[in-house]
Amino acid sequence: MGREAGGVKGDREGAADPSLMEAAVVGGVLGFEGALELVRPVRARMFSNQAHRLIFRAVRALEGRGVPVDPLTVADELGDRLDEAGGVVYLASLLDAVPTAANIRYHASRVVESHYRRRIAEAATGEGGPEKLQALIEARRDVLARLDPSEVLAGIRTWAEMQREPPLTYLVDDLLPEGGVSLVVGHPKAGKSTLARVLAAEVSGHGHGAFLGRALVNAGRVLYYAPDEHPSMTAAGLRGILPHDADGVDFIGSANLETLAVAAPEYRLLIVDTLGRLFARERFPDSDAYMQWQAHLDRVRRVATDTGCAIVLLHHARKSGGTRSLAVSGSAAIAGAADTVITLDVAEEDGQPVRYVESINRAGMEIPRQRLVLAGDGWLTVQAPRVDPSKEARAEARAMKRDGVPVRQIADDLGVSRSTVGRWTKGVSRASHG
Question: Is the model's pTM score more than 0.90?
Fold first, then answer.
């Protein structure tokens, strides 16, 4: 007779019942790294046993946040519902019962078969008619196909087949891909939110048909998520660029990624201000930051890919500065996951702060460093940076100083005064040549 903890029992005839197959799947994902990826199409609702539903859902939640999966972390995730899942002893027993995850796809397919058999039987005697039955049959076929190992090989394509893929499409030409994830990075007050508002106005069809000098390709509805900003501030920033009766831009002040994922198919663009705020409740300081952020961004990527909605994430720059994508605060996984990284920074010219913008693109064409000018009506334009004729001379003077060239000779060679050389090379020491 089989183990009954958590409600698992063996069949009197000796044949494995659905609960034993469920236990094999749950034990596999609980004890073997990478097993969850093998049964990605399986959902918690497919398990007939409540304990297994709870455990599987907890494992998926931990994996989504980049937290290591083991009986203790799963028990912690279950919290007050741990007893419903059989307790810590049952969690540990699942590991003993499943010595390998080699057959987990087969076990999962049996779980799926049992689930859809129940659903189809219910539909046959209830409401919904032939349409519901057909939908269930097609869903069953789709999930089982994705669990079939042969489907993995079927997914391998030749270069000739790859060339038949449709070209990449853009929301903003050569800059923001549709169904892609982009970052806008900058220090506080660098202009991230202002840039996002202008983008929202352009995409919703209330702008000038261009963004940062690139043509708007596809207009559509925009969802703006900004919990960090008071609604009055958001409204004030948009008042100058959106008509009073403008349609096409909606706002949400409190949501998680799952909520945004439900709404995303209705929108062409989702703006998140800020990335850190979106996952503020899901941070675990003790876990590996790179893996944690990679898991977060993988979830964002899936929303963009599955819905075709372009997602733009606003994020803070590193306090110590940095250049281009290296200025992104937090883990390198954040910049690495983005299709486009737009960086904003502020420099001082003639005693006045001047904003600059540039981009790094996975595809398309990068924006070289340009001045970002805020017009009186709230719109942004880009201009080529001012050329500093002394920049190359300054760099040459510093190099000559490191090489030990006397100040007088540097001044003569460059045609400037010795005091200018002193100012340009302040803090530069002669290089040691051992």
Answer: no
Residue type, 281: R
> How many helices and strands in the chain, by DSSP H and E?
18, 13
Angle value at C-alpha 265, between 259 and 269, nearest 5 degrees:
90
Q: Is 404 exposed, middle or buried (0-12, 13-18, 19+ CB in 10 A)?
A: exposed
User: Within a 13 Å sphere around the CA of 16, how many CA atoms are in the beta-carbon half?
Assistant: 11
φ, ψ of residue 322 to 5 degrees: the values are 125, 175
Phi, psi of 96 (to 5 degrees): -65, -30
User: Cis peptide leading into 194, omega within 30 of 0?
Assistant: no
What values do phi and psi take at 277, rounded to 5? -70, -35
Rg (CA), the chain: 29
Q: Are 223 and 264 in contact (CB under 8 A)?
A: yes
Strands, E, within 268-414: which ranges?
269-273, 310-316, 340-349, 352-361, 370-374, 380-383
Could you read off the pLDDT of 137-191 as tens digits, one per residue? Answer: 888 888 888 887 665 566 677 888 888 888 899 999 999 999 999 999 998 888 9
CA dist list (Å): 68 to 34, 143, 287, 359: 11, 26, 8, 34
